[in-house]
Design goal:
There is one protein chain. The chain has 1 helix and 5 strands, in the order ββαβββ. The protein is 5% helix and 29% strand. It is globular, with a radius of gyration of 13 Å. A 5-stranded antiparallel β-sheet has the order 4-3-2-1-5, with no helix packed on it. It has one domain. With 97 residues, it is mostly beta strands.
């Protein structure tokens, strides 16, 4: 299983469940978070090594938004999942082209 790493591009499905796939960049992983920032409450903790913090890109003037502690979508290796098949509020790897 490929672990998410800082700076990787993933696909995100919004919490509302609409099929509006968004590109997102991983801004925090279990290995990249500063424990003192978590203890101080400045950075949310992650529930597992597969959960990530994301910056989700959006079209339009806002440009994007942050999502925290986002779990992976379905699929044990995340390679068969697409943004159209994962549950709302989750991420998956982009399909290979």
């Amino acid at each position: 299983m490929q672990q998410p790493t800082l700076g990787r591009i993933v696909h995100y499905r919004g919490k509302q469940g609409r099929l509006a796939p968004r590109a997102a960049i991983v801004t925090g992983t279990i290995d990249s978070l500063d424990p003192s920032g978590i203890e101080a409450g400045d950075v949310p903790a992650l529930d597992s090594p597969e959960h990530v913090h994301l910056w989700v890109f959006t079209p339009g003037t806002s440009g994007g938004f942050a999502e925290f502690n986002v779990p992976p979508g379905d699929g044990s290796d995340h390679t068969d999942s697409t943004v159209g098949t994962i549950p709302p509020g989750t991420w998956c790897w982009p399909p290979r082209v």
